[in-house]
Amino acid sequence: MRIGVITFPGSLDDRDAQRAISLAGAEPVALWHGEHDLHGVDAIVLPGGFSYGDYLRCGAIASHSPIMAEVIDAANKGLPVLGICNGFQMLVEAHLLPGGLIRNDHGKFVRRDQVIRVENNTTAWTTDFSAGEEIVIPLKNGEGGYIASDETLKQLEGDGLVAFRYMGVNPNGSLNDIAGLTNARGNVVGLMPHPEHAVEAGFGPNTDFRMRSGVDGLKVFTSVLEGVLS
Amino acid sequence: MPTIVVEVMPKAELLDPAGKAVAGALARLGHTSFTNVRIGKRFELTVEGPVTDATLAQAQTIAEEILSNQVIEDVTAVFEAK
Lengths: 230, 82
What we know:
Chain A has five helices and eleven strands; from the N terminus they run βαββαβαββββαβββα.
C-alpha cells in the first residue's frame, strides 16, 4: 500500500502526513506539485500548510497546480484522496467538494485540541471509526469557516456527506459545525483539523490517561489501508 | 501599458471578518459616520496590445474562474483602466 503526499510551495505538514502513513503501516510516497505523475500510488493526501502564502484565496493557486489535473482525474475515478486543512481548501477550490472556507468568524488564528464527531464512517478514510465516535485531534487555522448555500447544506446533511462535525466548541464559525466533508462516493474527504498530528504517543493531544498521548488521528490513515487491501 | 481592472467582493450575505475588524477600529477612532466596512480585491491585468472586446471577455472569464471563487465572492467589475 503506497500513499502519496503532495508537497506544494508552502506546504507545512507534508512530512507529518508521511510519518502518519508510516505509523499506519503503509509506504509514504513524496509527490511534487509541479509534476504530472502520481507514481502509481493507491491513495493521495493533500497536506496542510500555506501553499503560495494563501495568496488569492487559501488553496486556490495550488488547486491549479500541474499535478492537480491528475489528482482530479484520479479522484473522479475513485482513488482515495484526503485533504487536510490547506488540502481541504484545495479540494473545495478544485470543486471536488462543495462550498468554501473563509476567515474564522472571530478574526483570529485558532490552535486547539478539538473534539470532533465522526458523522460518516463509511468513507474510504473513516471506516476504522465507529459511527458517532468522538475523537480529539489538533486544529490550527485562520481561515477554516465552512460556508455553503442553504441548498448545498441541505443536500450535505440529507445525503450524509458531513464526515466530521465540531463538538463542544465551534472554533471558526463553520455553518452546521461542519469540520469535514466527503463526496457522495466516499473516496474524497476533506477536513480542517489535523489527524496527522495525533498519531504517536508523546506528540498528540492530551488525554485523561497521559499528557500528549492522543492518537485518535491514526484511524484515518489505517481506514484507507483496509479499503485498498479488501 | 493598457490595463484591465477586475474587482472582486465577498458575497454581500457573508460575514467579512476583516471588514468588521476595520469597522471596529474606525468606531474606536471616533469616525462614527461610517457604520460598515467591506474589504474586496482589485486586480490590475496588464494587456499585451490594445484592449479589445475579446480581451475583456477573456478577463471576465479569468475573473469568474480563477480570480474569484463564486461560492464566496462576486466579480463586481471588469473594465479598462483609463
